[in-house]
Amino acid sequence: MTSENSNTPEADLESALDALVQSVDPVADAAVEDALEIDSAEEAAAAASAIVDEEVEEEAETAEDPYKAFKKDLRRRPGKWFVIHTYAGYERKVKSNLWNRRETMGAVDDIYEIQVPMEEVMEVKNGQRKMVTRVRIPGYVLVRMNLTEHTWSVVRHTPGVTGFVGNANNPVPLRINEAFEMLKSTVELEPAATAKGKAAANAAAQGNVEIDFEIGETITIKSGSFEGLPGTISEINPAAGKLTVLVSLFERETPVELSFDQVTKMV
Fold it and tell me: How does pLDDT run across 190-206, given as a tens digit for each residue?
């Protein structure tokens, strides 16, 4: 008899109510309590205004952080990001070819965007520094599109493309975080006019420097107290733009710190 009573609709209802009471949502409860405490139209208007202010503040924070704004924009864009392999050095050519093919082959409505992320790095050759622009991820191109048999064919058979990354016939799109990491170098952090002037400092600070020297290499010092003497590189500090060079003085190797532009390669 007891087991029969435990299976009655009343017992089931009571169990359901108990479960409902125990499933507490603090955020929802707080919102309900706040709403119940509103006694007048003025209080309701003030509450609504506070919510709007919070939303505006959140949007302002996003606007101040270009990376957050870019990531938010990525989520809103139609299509998915896919990565394709290309022959090394042909990334920009593939981008141009694919952009033309999307138009001539009727894929304009499904292939939205093609990106070859670039970056500026400081290159040091023969003691001379210069900023150069290079492909950030050599051998890869990013395509935002709706994947169909037609768009797959348009992309895959573009000259210079060797295939999709992952499953060649059924490629998997990038997650938003993955796309963001690969594309964040395209975000403009400041006006172009001032960005170029600060690029060298930023590159050095981030260790984003290409160096045409290596440890153990013999060089010639071209300026300073040891001008004209040969030396051997023992340490390289890209961020500071410095080399530690071992110079032979009185039959003894002495470490000397020099900047990149104070030395030149042995001819």
Answer: 554 344 444 544 554 45
